Each structure stands twice: as C-alpha cells, then as structure tokens.
Amino acid sequence: MYMAMASKLAIRSEHWEAQLRKGCLDLVILAVLWERRLYGLEILRELEQASGLALAEGTLYPILMRLKQDGLLKSEWVEAEAGHPRKYYWLTPAGQERAIAMTNVWEDFSRSIARLLVPMKRSTDELTTTSKR
Amino acid sequence: MSSLPRVNADPVSEYLNTVRAGLKKLGDADREEILAEIRGHLLERAEEFSSRGFSHPAEAAVAAMGDATEVARQFAETTARQKVSRSIAPWTLLRAVGRIAATGAASFIMFLVGVVGYCCALAFGLVAIAKVLMPTKVGFWIGPHMLVWGMSQTTAGHRELAGEYFIPISLAIAFVFGSGTTLLLRTWMRSRFSVANILKAKKSVG
Lengths: 133, 206
Fold this sequence. Notes:
The complex is a heterodimer. By secondary structure, chain A is mainly alpha-helical. In chain A, 70% of the residues lie in helices and 11% in strands.
C-alpha cells in the first residue's frame, strides 16, 4: 500500500514538474533568442545546455509558430551547408518587450515563493542535522 | 530539399507522412513549410546521432521528436487559434469557446456571455424586421405595468414611443450586441492562449 502511495506521489510530482517546465517554455525560448538568431535545433540545444530543459523536440515548433503569430518572433529560411535550409528565428521589438515583462514577473514570483519556502527549508535542515547526530 | 546520404531516411519519411496526415486542414504552403522545418530537424539530428555512434540514428531522431500525431495536433491547434482570433464569424467564435467551455468556470461563463450576447443581437435584429412586416404591432410600447421593445398583443391603452426611429435604434442595438460580443470573445480567446496571461497571474500571486 505504501509503495502504491509513494508511486502515486512520484507521478503527481513528475506531473507538477512537467507543468512547471511547460509554463516556463515561452520565457526560456524568448530568453535564448535574446542575443542571437537561432534555428529550432539550436534553440533546443541551448535549452538543454543552459537550463537543463529537455522537452519532446516536436513540441518546440508549435510554440515557435504561436510566438510568431503573436508577433513576438520573426523567421527566415537560410540555405545551409548541411544540405537543407534552416529556419532562423529572432525577437521582434514586441518580443523583447514581452521577454522583459515576463522576466520581471518571473523574478517577483520566484522571490515570493522563496520567501514562503524559508521556514520549510529551515525545518528540513534542522531535521537533517538532528538525524545526523 | 536533399536528404543526407549516411542516414536511413525511411523512419523520417514515415514520421513526416503521419504529420502531413494530421495537417490536412492546413493550406499547402503552411503545411509544406512545417514539414520542411521538421524534415530538416530530423535529418540534422539523425546526422548528429550517427556521428555519436548510434546504431539507428534516424529512429533515435524520430523518437526524440515525440509522437507525430501529437505534434500535428499541436500545430493544428495553434493554426486554429490564429483563425479564431482573426475571425468575426459568430458561429466560429462560439464553437471555439464552446469547445473549451467545460475546462473551467471562466470558459463556461464566457460561453454563456457569448450565447446571450449573440441572442440579444439576433433578437433586436428580428424585431427590426418584424417592424417592417407588422408596423402597428411592433414598437416600443409603454403602458400600465408594461414596457415592451417588440411585439405587443394588446396595444389599447399603450403608447408607442420610438415611432420611425424604432428600426434604426433596434439595428444599432443589434450591432452593438453583435460586435461587442465578437470583440469580447476574440480578445478573451487571444488572452487565454497568450503568454500575457502570466502577467495576470502576477496580480493573484502578489
């Protein structure tokens, strides 16, 4: 019974984490495009390297399409040595504004959450110290 | 668009065919652009996996891409969302809001607002037409215990106040209800799927 409960909790926790990551995708995509023009696979590599955000690769392209529809990104096909053209994306001025606004929201939000977590973290640290003794 | 020679392209073609089948409703140009981007991604990923010594690089690239049907569904949903946010057709808008009405209180309320708004527009439009057909019975009637914008069975003892302005006023109100509801639904649909709704979340958290 405990095993089943633990398994359910693990699944819920994974689901929560997946939702959290999903909610951040727009922001992290805008962030990786802040300085450079990148094509889809490069964006994925940046996400993996910089933030550890590994996602089903196919989900990236509908998001890029939506951000483009919202006027936050522009794109252009560029012939590449690889033998097939690549579609490069970059931020529009509206995309830059949105990225800044989202970053501010993210920072406020994470600070608020961090404040809430302080007592809980303190308690778990104390428990860890006690159990070590 | 040429394929890379060192990787087996069959799983890639199969994957692209599944995505193509899911994008039937899209225009040819849009569909081919999506497929070209995915094809390029898969071929480059397969090449990368091949150089890393994978025994089945194309299969690995396809697996990393995720379920083709789901990818096609996400593209189709994104395209539909764009269509809805640009549409002014009441039926298209109501159908789109109706599809998500069961997902939450806000969606349900917005669906009801849409239905009521368009019904009001229709009702005022219909009474304007009815005024042409039955000019003596339809109007803005006022009398003891009665206030009617439309048709009254008994007009004795009642006064009609709008007169010749009844039709233009009815049409104007119908227009306001119709266009107001359309604007409201479009704005809501856009904001619901936009990253901007994160900004609203800030208020509820802070």
